[in-house]
Amino acid sequence: MKNLGYILILSLFLVFAHSCGSGSRDASVPSFKETLTKEDTVAVLQRCDSCMQALKAGELDMALGMLSLLQDDGKVTPLTKSKADQLKKMFKLFPVLAYQIDSYTFYSYEVNEVKYTIEFFEKKAGDPTPNTIGFMFNPIKCKDGWRLAVKDAGQKLLDKSTD
Prior knowledge:
Blueprint: H1 2-20, H2 32-35, H3 38-56, H4 60-65, E1 67-70, E2 76-78, H5 81-93, E3 98-106, E4 112-119, E5 132-142, E6 145-150
Parallel strand pairs: 1-6
Antiparallel strand pairs: 1-2, 3-4, 4-5, 5-6
């Protein structure tokens, strides 16, 4: 009889412990996507367009001043001199004559995408040479608003949650 009591108490404890650690998310904590508003989308697209307009106008320093770096530890910092020099070289080699937004996707606070196609020289009729490249921003939501980072091909994905 004593063993039956211990088994009953142990069973209740296990049921309680399992229900507390079931891994279900607290319904009162909204996911990243649930916190986004139309204003967030507008703010991100306006920032991206301002940067692209500066690039199109040849204002490379102004455009680069709008960009940040997302470090591997999740910190958002201004562009390093070497990264700014690398981007400046790229935009001198591939100047923005025209651009169009292809898509935008929000995943998490630090991993998002705004994809563009950039035309870097005018194409003559019948010329098969490609005259466009892809370019991608990584908008990052910080406490003080949105920051733009450049999305690198080898960029480490910190939190690509799809909640």
